[in-house]
Amino acid sequence: MILIHCPYCDEKRPEIEFAYAGQAHIARPVDPDSYSDEEWERFLFIRANPRGRHHERWRHSHGCGRFFNAVRDTVTDKFETTYKAGEPRK
Amino acid sequence: MSGYRLPAGGRVDRNKPVSFTFDGKSYQGLAGDTLASALLANGISLFGRSFKYHRPRGVLAAGSEEPNALVSVLRGPGRFTPNLRATNVEIHDGLTATSQNRWPSLKTDFGAINDRLGMFFPAGFYNKTFMWPRSFWDRLYEPAIRKMAGLGDAPTEVDPDTYAATYAHCDLLIVGAGPAGLDAALEASGTGKRVILIDEQDEVGGGALADPALWAWLERSVKALNAAANVTILSRTTAFGYYHNNFIGAVQRLTDHLPENSQAPREKLWRIRAGEVLLAQGAIERPLVFDGNDTPGVMLSSAARIFANRYGVAVGKSLALMAVHDSGWHDVFALKKAGVGIAAIIDARDDIDEALQAEAAALGIAVHLSHSVIGVKGRHQVAAIEMCANGSDVRRTISCDALLMAGGWTPSVHLWSHSKGSLKWRDDLGAYVPDQPNENCRSIGACSGDWDFGKGAVFDVLPTPKDQARIKAFVDFQNDVTANDINLAVREGFRSIEHIKRYTTNGMATDQGKTSNLNGLQIASTALAKAVPDIGLTTFRPPYTPQTFGALAGHAKGALFQATRTTNIDGWAEENGAIFELVAQWRRARYFPKFGEDMHAAVNRECRAVRGSVGIFDASTLGKIEVVGPDAAEFLNRMYTNPWKALEPGRCRYGLLLKEDGFITDDGVSARLAPDRFHLTTTTGGAARVLNMMEDYLQTEWPDLNVWLTSTTEQYAVVALQGPNARKLLEPLVEGIDLSAEEFPHMAIREGHICGIPTRLFRVSFTGELGFEINVPTAYGRALWERLMADGAEYGITPYGTETMHVLRAEKGFIIVGQDTDGTVTPYDAGLDWAVGKKKPDFVGRRSLARPDIVAAGRRQLVGLLTEDSKMVLEEGAQIVADTNQPVPMTMIGHVTSSYWSETLGRSIAMALVANGHAMKGETIYVPMPEGTHKAVISSMVFYDQEGARLHV
């Protein structure tokens, strides 16, 4: 069981306290109407599937309840870092 | 074989005889024996039959790597464990063990015909043979294969034992309490570290248990460790898996070795998080590959030494050794000194240490260098061996009753590999050893390749003048894989060791190839003319040895498998005969049968009561979220499809929630209590999902909004009072709220008191009748319910369950998200256009409602269905076709989502998703069902009181 560092609680906790929440740094458009169908499709459905570093969101569901961002290596399943929502991409 | 108890020696207690049975026959052993050592001491050599060929098999090893001697142990009804290794089963008085894979008996086994037909059972036999004709598979092949296949029998009764589980944390976890592990533990015991030392055997010591010269040291060490407060020793505990971040799973066996079944847990699952892990699992001796190497009595050289030194058992009266490694010579010297007869030492190497040869000569042991065993005589036990000088055809027979194999050593890298540590090949050892760690972990002692067993050579198959194609030289004993099978796989084009493994099943048995992987690799390496490291190594995965489902499940079984959520009113429902159903984790009353009613009769009666007078329903499970803050209205306006900002305090609104892709995900009625406070409701099953989704948007998309979300589902008990007499019943009980139609219209909320209890009183209806949903603090739910039941008696108040609720809402065409929608239904598809705020610039999912596929024609739309035969209730999920004359497979244009008998209307009603359904009102469609095709007409979804006259009273 992986240990995940919650940047809000500032603690390493077992993964059963957390829920995965998809790829990180995909901001909802401020004006969705200005998006073409293709752009909207890309926003809705198209996600990265990298071998290696992956920026992803997690929620400390059974803890503080906060969403945060993480960089995890999809090959080794190791977390490189976690950081608060709103902070720049690492 | 003619094993026997040596007159002296061993760690068994010679003053404590133990009686047990094997295959129904009684035997005696000594306290401290395993089933294997006790049976060997009784002269038993035949322990079981092999998996595929049903060949007679004995004991190969003395530890958990044993592939052959699998037994079943029965400890009473439901307490049946198959596939235990006889070398790990501790005997106790009354132990009842049986052999496996044989019928009618171990000595006479009909399945052994497979062995005679062995030439017809090559690798991939099943894949190649049972392909045609296709129809034979179900009727002939599969039943026949099933009868023959399998390892042991599955238990047939529920396991009555209990299993414990615990979490543990330590600074240092040491796996393996042999000399290396004990040394490390002793060193750490002097520090402040919390240390856990794990060993799978009943006694710590590992290899030292078979070396009397170390017993004094062992006793001192164990004493010191037991005295150290910071060291915990777990014996009879198998570390079966090594997971991320130094998380180790281990199972401790607590009661199987005791004569009586106890109330105490049988096993305990340890989940250990360690700062550092030291792996000291030792090494496993490698068998040699030659014709007849699976005959009972052919065993690992180290095993014979363990049986003699630890258990005081000679595995035979006259032992021969086939060695390619020095360690076998040392074993034989020790055995000879313990009084065991040695027939000969045969070594395939020609260059042997002078000192070894001198010691053999001094002990009077005949030595044959550059010789190999090429055959074994005897079927149920070794009677003699045939040997031959390497490279010649000069054969010689030597009489003996056991043959020891010293094929070198394989470090136990299983847990290291679980942790994803890398391995490197060492040519000098002919083995893989740990290289780079992936966790904070070190490998020490023999499992790191660090040992003093002496030198050896590596052979794939021992040299033989016999026709290679005709010999039976086993590599994987448990799965009956021979050297020929691996050669065949290579000839047939398999190149990757992963493919060769799966094709031949080498290393895929319950022992995961502990004794076979390296020999298999070596043979594949020769066949492919490639170095072993260029072929790779198959992956070890947990568990290290098979573990019971009981230990892994622990407490999570029966009622504790999953939490059941109950409302404050649940106890009343149970006392009043409710039939329950599970909705998500909630237990809900489905209907309340009276006087032996079936569900149909009960639901009809409950429906009549609600439409005719008043019904009472426990709606406490509805999800509830309190939305508070200056931006609460703005937030809801962005989340839901409909407008919220203009909603006045004291009013309610039906809210429809989409996902960003435009599809309906939840709905519910919500109330504005104050400008900055809303009481949201969600579907019973959707509460957690909706709160998670709202938190997501609030935290990550709109952190500027000043809003707080709180789950209040369990704060309130909710009693729904529905029917024309609801107001009359409620009025005398309510204080501070004017219930008149003018002051308290449909879709309003008021705060006040009911029976003195503070309440949030909603005037809402999921039935189409005049209705109220009374929210009170949870603890008052049942008291309120009982008061309403008492006061409602004069109106014939009737409790109803979820089934009646479903019928009543369907009569009104109200959808249930998740039943009438399935994640591909938009508000337009569901006929909920009215709930979409056309003037709103944005809300979650709005842009998607303009996606090309969403606006395209032909989407499945929700409609009502009226069957031509009004008594016919369609099956929910049944498919719909437009024309029954088309050829099969027909084009399906939709399916039935909800279908009921409507007692109110005296006919059946249904809802369905039908392609272009909204434009098909009045058209006839067909619903093929098993007993025939039914005709139905597409109608409005609102079957009852289309004007809503019954609501606004």
Features:
heterodimer, A: 90 residues, mainly beta, Folate-binding fold, 4-stranded antiparallel beta sheet, two-stranded antiparallel sheet, B: 953 residues, alpha+beta, Ubiquitin-like (UB roll), FAD/NAD(P)-binding domain, Gyrase A, domain 2, 7-stranded mixed beta sheet, 23 helices
Task: Write a structural description.
The complex is a heterodimer of chains A (90) and B (953). By secondary structure, chain A is mainly beta. Chain A has a single domain, classed as Folate-binding fold (2-Layer Sandwich), CATH 3.30.2270. Chain A contains one helix and six strands, in the order E-E-E-H-E-E-E. Chain A has one helix at 37-45, and strands at 3-6, 11-14, 19-23, 53-59, 67-73, 79-84. Chain A is globular, with a radius of gyration of 14 Å. The N and C termini of chain B lie far apart (96 Å). In chain B, strands 9, 10, 11, 12, 13, 14 and 28 form a seven-stranded mixed sheet that branches. In chain B, a hairpin with a 5-residue loop joins strand 6 (70-74) and strand 7 (80-85). Helices cover 21% and strands 29% of the residues of chain B. Chain B is of the alpha+beta class and 953 residues long. Among the domains of chain B are: 4-117, 2Fe-2S iron-sulphur cluster binding domain, sarcosine oxidase, alpha subunit, N-terminal domain (Ubiquitin-like (UB roll)); 160-281 and 409-452, FAD/NAD(P)-binding domain, CATH 3.50.50; 616-785, Gyrase A, domain 2 (2-Layer Sandwich), CATH 3.30.1360; 857-953, Aminomethyltransferase beta-barrel domains (Elongation Factor Tu (Ef-tu), domain 3, Beta Barrel). Chain B has 23 helices and 50 strands. The longest helix of chain B has 15 residues, at 687-701. Classes of the chains: A mainly beta (90), B alpha+beta (953). The interface between A and B is medium-sized, with 26 and 25 residues.
